[in-house]
Amino acid sequence: MVDVTIKRFDELESYHGQFLYASRGLGVTAWGMNVLKLPPNWPDYPDHDHAKEGQEEAYVVLQGRARLSAGGESWDLVPGTLVRVGANQKRKIVPGPEGVTILALGGTPGKAYEPPTRSKSAK
């Protein structure tokens, strides 16, 4: 039996339509993975860190543009950009005028990944 799962973005469960549960949809259990589909100029992406979980994140910009702010600095994110943000670093992403689609990958260094429990607010 072939062990392959294929999904389109529109087939993934979402949280508020902007955060797509990619790991859950594909059955990935080794790391966290979401697709962020942020609308144009959306200011509500939270300024946050993952200090509590110790999870670092990597972002891959797939489409559109955004601005990442962290530690008093900021960077333009465009397709083909790879970014790593440490667990303790507060960060905020603001999409550009055409919005942005980002693949977000996360895990805690030195610790086996534990998928989160299913959210009641998932649509």
General form: globular
Overall pLDDT level? 92
What is the gyration radius calculated from CA atoms? 15 Å
Helix tally equals 1
- Proportion of residues in extended strands: 35-45%
Please bin the fraction of helical residues: under 10%
Unreliable spans? none
Order of helices and strands: EEHEEEEE
Task: Give the quaternary arrangement of the chains.
Answer: single chain
SS-derived structural category: mainly beta
What does this protein structure show overall?
The chain is mainly beta and 123 residues long. It has a domain at 12-63 and 89-107. It is built from 1 helix and 7 strands, in the order E-E-H-E-E-E-E-E. It has one helix spanning 22-26, and strands at 14-15, 19-21, 32-38, 56-70, 73-77, 82-85, 92-107. Strands 1, 2, 3, 4, 5, 6 and 7 form a 7-stranded antiparallel β-sheet that branches. Strand 1 and strand 2 form a beta hairpin. It is globular and about 50 Å long. The mean pLDDT is 92.
Provide a compact summary of the structure.
This protein is mainly beta.
Features:
123 residues; mainly beta; seven-stranded antiparallel sheet; globular
